[in-house]
Amino acid sequence: MSLVDRVRNILLTPTTEWEAIAAERASIGDLYRAYVIPLALIPAVAGFIGGAIVGIGVPGVGTIRVGFFAALFAAVLRFGLQLAGVYVLALAIDALAPTFGGRKDPEAAFATAAYSGTPAWLAGVFSIIPAFGFLAILGLYGLYLLYLGLPRLMQAPPDRAVAYTAVVVVAAILVGFLITGVLGILVGTRVYA
Q1: Structurally, how many domains does the chain consist of?
Q2: Contact 116, 146 (CB under 8 A)
Q3: Which residue range is the domain that position 109 belongs to?
Q4: 114 partner at 20 to 30 Å CA-CA among 18, 40, 58, 101?
């Protein structure tokens, strides 16, 4: 299945798409190459364009842009941390599965983390125009995708899906804070040094 078809299906018909995903057996490497890397590039590239080229308009000051190399450094770092974040989230999904009556399956856990992240990666396009960055909230649709995907891929009982999703969301928030913190420390140091 093509990347565009998979993205469209996971967003528009998630219930049937999770069933199709559950029937597939893709390796973690295959999912990285065919799905995660192309989508994780969206917010990284959009953030670079928004920061280095478009900039942020500040009343009375003008447009503020990040330097080219600082923005490039931030984009590369953001991209790498997103790739790592998906993997760390997959580890959490896999480790938590038995607690919620599911089965451990690293590939299924990675697929769950990867496909439920689709809306957040797509919403990253709004970073091109920093003033529209608040629209990244549309990425929260991924929580619903996660809720639908956990019982199907990790074979957790549907009646425990809400609790499983809630705990995974807490793990995802912690991973997100870690990524944001690392970006803030490394990019802030690089920009202001």
Answers
A1: 1
A2: yes
A3: 3-192
A4: 101
**Sequence-separated (6 or more) residues with CB below 8 Å from residue 93:** 109, 112, 113, 150, 154, 168, 171
In the chain, the amino acid numbered 192 is: Y
Task: Give the helix, strand, coil percentages of the chain, each rounded to 5.
Answer: 85, 5, 15
Give the HSE-up count for residue 182: Cα atoms under 13 Å, Cβ half-sphere: 16
Separation CA 66–CA 191 (nearest Å): 8
pTM of the model: 0.87
Rounded distance between C-alpha atoms, residue 22 and residue 25, angstroms? 8
Distance CA 172, CA 22 (A): 22
Amino acid letter, 136: A
Instruction: Convert the pLDDT of each residue in 127-165 to its tens digit.
Output: 888 778 788 888 889 999 999 999 999 999 989 999 999
Give the pairing type, strands 56-58 and 62-64. Answer: antiparallel
Partners of 63 in beta bridges: 57
Phi/psi of residue 62, nearest 5 degrees: 115, -155
